[in-house]
Specification:
Blueprint lengths: L8 H22 L20 E8 L2 E9 L4 E8 L4 E14 L4 E13 L3 E15 H4 L8 E12 L8 E12 L4
Antiparallel strand pairs: 1-2, 1-8, 2-3, 3-4, 4-5, 5-6, 6-7, 7-8
């Protein structure tokens, strides 16, 4: 099921509103015609450092997150969530398909293990897209810490038999980057 049992018109209307909101938010960035990694700055994928630590939440993956910038276009992310009725360990790969100095647009794929109330465990997988930006470029101040935020929308599926958690997901994350640049 795309939306779990127990959700109805309210969930679909919330989904439609959020989707429309994100489209209005993201589309101007996609067609802004910004220069990609030229001149006076680095693209978001290589700003800060190649390691990141923080928090990420995009149901059903949420928790402490670590990122590693493989190169300017590829990022690996591990998420460990252990609070609440669902615990998870997941890995994600980001592909930055639109890179520039102020923000990056990316697509992601996710695979992990999800445990619901400690008695039902299964695989989860998903895909989606998002936008990432750093506060140094956002506020045009290189003295600020290397903190990056991201917002995303996607779809996630699971193999849990007791409770179907497959759903559209909306997420956000915040990471502090450190280490050498790529």
């Amino acid at each position: 099921m795309l939306i779990s049992s127990g959700y109805g018109f309210r969930a679909w209307s919330r989904l439609a509103f959020t989707g429309a909101f994100l489209a209005v938010l993201l589309l101007p960035f996609r067609f802004a015609g910004a220069q990609v990694g030229t001149g006076d700055g680095l693209t978001v994928g290589v700003q800060g450092g190649k390691f990141g630590v923080g928090f990420a939440s995009a149901w059903p993956t949420y928790g402490i997150s670590g990122t590693y910038q493989l190169n300017e276009t590829l990022t690996a992310e591990a998420i460990l969530g252990f609070v609440g009725v669902a615990t998870n360990i997941s890995g994600r790969g980001w592909y930055r398909f639109d890179q520039n100095v102020d923000y990056d647009l990316y697509g992601y794929g996710m695979l992990g293990i999800l445990s619901y109330r400690s008695f039902d465990t299964g695989l989860m997988f998903g895909f989606g897209g998002g936008i990432e930006a750093g506060i140094q470029e956002l506020f045009d101040d290189p003295e600020l810490p290397a903190i990056f935020g991201n917002f995303e929308i996607g779809i996630a599926f699971d193999t849990i038999a007791f409770y179907n958690l497959s759903i559209f997901s909306f997420g956000a994350g915040i990471h502090y980057r450190f280490g050498e640049r790529n």
